[in-house]
Specification:
The protein is mainly alpha-helical. The chain is built from 23 helices and no strands. It starts with 15 loop residues before the first helix and ends in a 6-residue tail after the last helix. It is a multi-pass membrane protein. It is found in: Cell membrane. Pfam families: MFS_1.
């Protein structure tokens, strides 16, 4: 890997407002799609697409389809990474967003198991695979739009804007579900923790159909982008790789592995604080595997309150990472995640106030660890393979930290007789792996995103060391 250069940034090819909106819009849609599926996977999909006499089995089946999209994401990262590193970021981002939007919209019009049998389940799996495939190319492209157009000394700050899509997507997605739940209340005397018949019949479809509006706005914004100066120079100088995947695996394998494990704790924390917590919070206290027993509306409002801290500290992490470095900032935050996993249950046992504190602390740490990733992962790779490299690291980590997290969490929850203390230990263990990766890695704060500048710095370093340059 080329040695770090001076950190000077090229003249941005796009206006600042266009860069920030374009990078934010796509990831907001990405996470919106994730949240509405995750919410539907808990609320209605087990009974609509995975009929079973055992509610836990139906829930796990629903989570399995959720995990299938994670498996498809690395494939999307390879395909869209190849396109992004050869054809450019703009075209690739438009295609990935369109693919994702179509798949999400089609979930909203799928027949249920009662209407089409296992064909309905198969179609849901197919749409989730299409979503995962498209999302595999979405994040890295958005992060590159932000960081490759960032002014000198502000890459981490700019990199937080695609990350900000996670809390915004949560608020919009779950906000729509709350609105639909309020408009379609359960009948008098019905279990308040369960959605109404009207919501189960058609209300859940509205958030999926609404995604078409968001995608249309995102496509309009992205169509106005031009390629970043660093990619344009790489293309003009003939630096575009014919097979980016081969190049990144052969020449930057260490960065791929480190990037994957650096992202691991972030993914595990993210999915435990969203998908698992929603299931745990809504499960009745007298259930076979007891939960917290909150009704859906109350617990989601508590989660949204926590997500506000997620958003605030995502933005706050950028200036910290720009000042103190990405690696240093993340080492401290990862250590805090380890501690958080160990105090998980004592917080929850304090009652409602403790549950709110648990959500606030979890989402605060999520913002602090997620924010710097928008800069760190792209900085690990040169321009010619940056889309592919950052995308593979980000999405392979999604399998290790996200695809299996719901199953592991549910199994540990059951093993703890309803207490999630083992889930907290699992989070702490994953944080240990991330901490090791951070300690083995190097600081990327001063790394140049321009291949020519980095190569010049590398030549200068070798010359000072007395070795001939090639």
């Amino acid at each position: 890997m080329p040695a770090p250069a001076t950190g000077s940034a090229p003249t941005p090819a796009n206006p600042r407002s266009r860069v920030l909106v374009a990078s934010l819009m796509g990831t907001t849609i990405e996470f919106y799609d994730f949240y509405i599926y995750a919410t539907a996977a808990v609320l209605v999909f087990p009974q609509l697409f995975f009929p079973s006499s055992d509610p836990t089995t139906a829930l796990l089946s629903s989570f399995a389809v959720f995990g299938a999209a994670m498996v498809a994401r690395p494939i999307g990262a390879v395909v869209f990474g190849h396109l992004g590193d050869r054809l450019g970021r703009k075209k690739t981002l438009v295609v990935s967003l369109l693919t994702m939007g179509i798949a999400t919209f089609l979930i909203g019009v799928l027949p249920t198991y009662a209407q089409a049998g296992w064909l309905a389940t198969a179609l849901l799996v197919l749409m989730r695979l299409a979503q995962g495939f498209a999302l595999g190319g979405e994040w890295s492209g958005a992060a590159l739009v932000a960081t490759e157009n960032a002014p000198s000394g502000k890459r981490a700050l700019y990199g937080t804007f695609p990350q900000l899509g996670a809390p915004l997507g949560f608020i919009i997605g779950n906000g729509l579900f709350l609105i639909m739940g309020a408009l379609l209340p359960s009948a008098a005397g019905a279990d308040p923790s369960q959605p109404s018949d009207a919501f189960v019949s058609w209300g859940w479809r509205v958030p999926f159909l609404f995604s078409a509006v968001m995608v249309a706005i995102g496509l309009w914004v992205r169509s106005r982008l031009v390629e970043s100066a660093v990619f344009a120079r790489t293309r003009e100088s003939g630096g575009v790789q014919r097979l980016p995947l081969v190049t990144v695996v052969r020449s930057h394998g260490k960065q791929l592995v480190l990037g994957t494990f650096i992202m691991l704790a972030t993914y595990v924390l993210f999915y435990l604080m969203t998908t698992f917590s929603l299931s745990y919070g809504r499960t009745a206290k007298d259930a076979a595997v007891p939960g917290l027993g909150y009704d859906y509306t109350t617990f989601v409002l508590m989660m949204i309150f926590g997500v506000l801290f997620f958003a605030a500290f995502t933005l706050a992490s950028g200036p910290l990472a720009d000042r103190y470095g990405r690696r240093t900032t993340l080492i401290w935050i990862t250590a805090a995640i380890m501690v958080f996993g160990l105090v998980w249950v004592p917080l929850i046992d304090l009652g409602t106030l403790g549950v709110v504190l648990w959500l606030v602390l979890g989402f605060t740490l999520m913002g602090m660890t997620f924010g710097p990733m928008g800069a760190l992962l792209p900085e690990l790779f040169p321009t010619s393979v940056r889309y592919t490299g950052s995308g593979i690291s980000y999405n392979v980590s999604s399998i290790l930290g996200a695809a299996v997290a719901p199953f592991i969490a549910v199994a540990l929850w059951e093993a703890g007789d309803g207490s999630p203390w083992l889930v907290g230990v699992y989070l702490s263990a994953m944080a240990v792996l991330t901490l090791i990766a951070l300690l083995l890695g190097k600081e990327t704060k001063h790394a140049s995103l321009d291949d020519r500048e980095a190569a010049s710095a590398d030549d200068a370093t070798r010359t000072r060391a007395g070795s001939p340059t090639s």
